[in-house]
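BUG: 3D viewer hangs when loading the predicted structure for this chain

Environment: internal workstation, default settings.
Expected: structure renders.
Actual: progress bar stalls at 90%.

Input used:
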Amino acid sequence: MNIEIFRYMDIENAIAALNNPIRRRILEWLKDRSNFPPALPEHADLEGVCVGYIQEKAGLSQSTVSNYMGLLKQAGLVTAERHGQWTFYRRNEANIQVFLKAVQDELSKT
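Structure tokens produced before the viewer hung:
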């Protein structure tokens, strides 16, 4: 696959995922774990935030938040880790930086 086409497709997926103010807010909230209640003792050593906490903060239904997190994950902006019945999400900082650089490069072309 042509690397430019692949890069373009990644940019498009990320832009589509970010084309919603709540999804952008979720990414903002995930930047600082203190935006959410403390983790349960059995989850204290895990990175990320339980989807239930994200749902509570967003004030949206479980299905909507799950859909939003799926889109952010598919775009590579977050990672998900399953522990029993719980799914924990965190930002994928490396991919976010790659996305920002790709957008900058694309918009800077002469």
